[in-house]
Amino acid sequence: MHSTRSSVTEMSTPLLSIRGLKTCFPTRAGLVTAVDGVDLDVYPGECLGIVGESGSGKSVTFASVIGLVRSPGYVADGSMQFDGIDLRGLNADGWRTLRGRDIAMTMQDALTALNPALTVAEQIEEVLLAHATDLPRRGRRDAARARAIEMLRLVGIPAPDKRIDDYPHQFSGGMRQRIMIAIALSCRPKLLIADEPTTALDVTIQAQVLDLISDLRRELGMSVVLITHDLGIVAEHTDRVAVMYAGQIVEAGVTRELIDRPRHPYTRGLIGLIPRLSDLDAPIKPIEGQVPELIGLGGTCRFYDRCDFRASRCRTDIPMEAAGLDHQVRCVRVEESLQ
Amino acid sequence: MSIAVRVPVMTAERIETPTWQSLRRFAADRFSMVAAIVVLAFVLMAVLAPWLAPHDPYETDLLRRLQAPAWMEGGEWSYLLGCDALGRDILSRIIYGSQVSITIGLAVVLIATVIGTVLGLAAGYMRGWVDIGISRLVDILLGFPYLIFAIALMAMMGPGLQNIILALVYKEWVVPARVVRGEVLAAREMEYVEAARAVGAPRLHIMFREILPNILSPVIVVSTIRMAHVIILEASLSFLGIGVQPPTASWGSMVADGRAFILDAWWVCTFPGIAILFLVLSINVASQGLRDAFDPKFSD
Amino acid sequence: MNETQSPLLDVRNLEKVYHLNSGLLQRIARQPALNLRAVDKVSFSVNAGETLGLIGESGCGKSTLARTVLRLHEPTSGSITFDGRDITKLPHREMTALRRRMQIIFQDPYASLNPRKSVEEIVGLPLSLHRIAQRSEIRDRVVAMLESVGLKSSHLGRFPHQFSGGQRQRIGIARALILNPSFVVCDEPVSALDVSVQAQIIALLGSLKRELGLTYLFISHDIGVIGHVSDRIAVMYLGDIVEIGPARELLRAPQHPYTRALLSAVPQIDAGPKRERVKLSGDLPSPLAPPPGCKFHTRCPFAVERCRQETPALRKVAGQGMVACHLEQA
């Protein structure tokens, strides 16, 4: 399941390429830089995990990618290329054709993301009629309905031809998440951004939904970005992973390698936080302190205050540096801290 | 979609209660602030009427019967807004009339809010028969048209300031009671209420100390809006002649008095009408501002 | 575990039924009564000094069970014995006095603190309600309590919205512990928090337990968390306890198919051999109309005819655990 992505990354060109992304939100307390200099590549067919706690900028990064940064927030700097298109140069029309057709996003809370006043059929058909180019001229509506039923069957809704005319509230939480995935996938996007797709779900349902996303990725050959706070999910479902902290990526690499040999003190802290069923005696080691406020940061490592290995050298802007094959880390004391 | 941005926790040591924050938001809203100042000016006018009024509002002078405002032909600067059919100074009567409007508006809303809040709290928190009893009573009272109900009560009790207040309170408490009951139904499910029960807090403590402070904002907002209604109702009753009795100056009865001369002496009924309009409008604008400022979400 | 000592909390056949559709109008309209059996004849005990972990998915009745045990909700039937005393029908006044010894920490650190009250008022309230301390003394006790949960005396006059989620949860813990209770229900105390804060709160609850000799009923849907804090674990499904036993035993060799499905569904970060995945089909049935027989049979991959007809009772199996399942396995 975990093919070594490094061979792929060397050969193919990325589907999505982000360089130096910076997204800001003006607040009364000052300018919050929620995303500060993020570089990311998503390759065709891969599943990239984005891990971080709230305030790490993981959701804002991808809200920037699909042009849905909430006002008064704005993308301040950087470039974003998707499949040969410059995303920052897109106008509203460009966005409308791109979103839903080539890039789709699912939200954490399926109940508020679905329109409660429309049936499931109406919501899927709306997307299909707007974007699908391969529907026949004659009988577009019938074709869209047939495609919608097919999508619901694909995501595992029982009796989809009957349930398609139900409203979102008539479905359970897990089923609603599936419906949202069905809507997102109905136009066969090249990239699916799944923002905490299972946080609101129970663990047995979570497993079903994540398996579904993995299966569909293989079947449809799309790329998936899985945004989550759960390293367990990352370990089981992604090929590569980027760890975010306070608006920056602090470590990125092939998933298995990064989890087995974490370099950044924060990544190691995160892994140490996870209660493992396989070893009940391993203590859960908290990371003391709090995430810094994202105002006027810079000139120091952002993890400085909470780091066990901080030194005077850390009081500068730390660059990402290679730490092995397809493994980068933002820490100047990797060698010392690993000893 | 919800992209959460971590808004920094205020680190300043200044202590900010949620109420204080709301008031500051209100003060920042210019338009509502102006309206609030106008309302305040009316209140001051009522309090300072004896010093502000240029003439005795009851002093009749048949020689000045229907005298025009100062800027018109036959007008006089000492009788700025002219005189009514009995030759009384209209400006002075408007100034004194504000006493009636504001006293009744404040008294009715205050009494009704206290009664309504207590009954609404009881209905919403205790549920059961208390709730059924209060809620049915509310439904029944809501079934009567307000003005006709008040007219009927006034007819039974007879005119007078106290009776107007009573007649209006009889039905007015229903409004805050309904608002409070609804808010309590939502608030009683909050975990902090359960937490108070878990530490052994008695019922009255939970109702008045835990829940009440949290639902006070909507109650205040509704009460201000209702004050405008009550002022109009009082004016209506006085207009119909069953409110405040002559010779006491009331804007409603002044409009009624002027009605007969509307073609010859438009100022007799127009100026008190404008006074009603201004006061009610200002209260409404100010209460809108209050509603915005007291939005239950404390974030900005 | 000491078998001879009597448990601090003993719950027998506890049942909590909510009657929906029982309003006046519905009764007049002769609508069929809907009974939501949130807790269905549940029995368990908690020994002094131990942590009983209660795990289950949303809607399984675990929070209702905890609130019914504390009599924040009144039980429909069954009995609750606390420290040798039957408290099921204890009059209001005596129950209030007993609340000093039984406390609860809530899940949502935003909803569980009154937004209009300062930290001093929130944490000091239990003291003034129970008239334990003089007015002058209350502040000192509150400060001491705040310090032991990792907050400062300068926080006294602040309001809940001025704190982060983790700090708010500390305030909730301070409120629960200021009365020196012996039994504390922790109702999903960390599930609303970020992972790094989660670990801080778990560590805090652990050290407070050791210092103050507390007994916890710890509710969570997170098996990793439950595994780490519990001495024994009970698994709930649709209002029933389907399996209960010592934590290690239960996690190492889960008996009930539901427990096995639950454990195998948790994503693991470790490479290496995975637990054999027990895949469940379908969704949780409506608790308003639970399936007959074993309530789990609609989703159980091993269900046989007997499961559809007969309700299994908790029975002893190998080791110290108990399981409610007809199947003979492991």
TrEMBL record, chain A:
Q: Which residues form the ABC transporter domain?
A: 18-271
Name one molecular function that GO assigns to this entry: ATP hydrolysis activity
Localization annotation: Cell inner membrane
Gene Ontology process terms (BP): peptide transport; transmembrane transport
Tell me which domain of life the UniProt entry assigns to the organism this sequence originates from.
Bacteria
CDD domains cross-referenced by the UniProt entry: ABC_NikE_OppD_transporters
SUPFAM superfamilies in the record, alphabetically? P-loop containing nucleoside triphosphate hydrolases (SSF52540)
Keyword Transport present in the record's keywords: the answer is yes
User: Per UniProt, what is the membrane topology?
Assistant: Peripheral membrane protein
Q: Entry's InterPro entries?
A: AAA+_ATPase, ABC_Ni/Peptide_Import, ABC_transporter-like_ATP-bd, ABC_transporter-like_CS, Oligopep_ABC_C, P-loop_NTPase
The record's SMART domains line, in alphabetical order, gives: AAA
Q: Which UniProt keywords apply?
A: ATP-binding, Cell inner membrane, Cell membrane, Membrane, Nucleotide-binding, Translocase, Transport
Coarsely, its chief localization is membrane
A Gene Ontology cellular component where this protein is annotated is: plasma membrane
The record, for NCBIfam families, names:
oligo_HPY (TIGR01727)
Give the similarity note: Belongs to the ABC transporter superfamily.
Can you name this protein? ABC transporter ATP-binding protein
The record lists the organism as Microvirga alba
UniProtKB/TrEMBL annotation, chain B:
Per UniProt, what is the membrane topology? Multi-pass membrane protein
What's one GO BP annotation on this UniProt entry? protein transport
**Domain ABC transmembrane type-1 residues, every copy:** 98-287
Query: Transmembrane residues, as ranges?
Result: 31-53, 102-125, 137-157, 215-244, 265-286
Compartments (UniProt record): Cell membrane
Matches recorded under Gene3D superfamilies: MetI-like (1.10.3720.10)
Instruction: Tell me the superkingdom of the source.
Output: Bacteria
Query: Is Cell membrane there in the keyword field?
Result: yes
Q: Name one Pfam family in it.
A: OppC_N
A single GO CC term, please? plasma membrane
Q: Which UniProt keywords apply?
A: Cell membrane, Membrane, Peptide transport, Protein transport, Transmembrane, Transmembrane helix, Transport
The record ties this protein, via InterPro entries, to: BP-dependent_transpt_permease, MetI-like, MetI-like_sf, OppC_N
- Family the UniProt entry places it in: Belongs to the binding-protein-dependent transport system permease family.
Q: What is this protein called?
A: ABC transporter permease
Organism, by scientific name, is Microvirga alba
Taxon lineage: Bacteria, Pseudomonadati, Pseudomonadota, Alphaproteobacteria, Hyphomicrobiales
From TrEMBL, chain C:
Localisation per UniProt entry: Cell inner membrane
- Keyword annotations for this protein? ATP-binding, Nucleotide-binding, Transport
Provide the primary localization: membrane
- Molecular-function annotations in GO: ATP binding; ATP hydrolysis activity
Domain ABC transporter, chain residue ranges per copy: 9-263
Q: Which GO terms describe its cellular component?
A: plasma membrane
Q: What family does the database annotate?
A: Belongs to the ABC transporter superfamily.
Question: What's the protein called, per UniProt?
Answer: Dipeptide ABC transporter ATP-binding protein
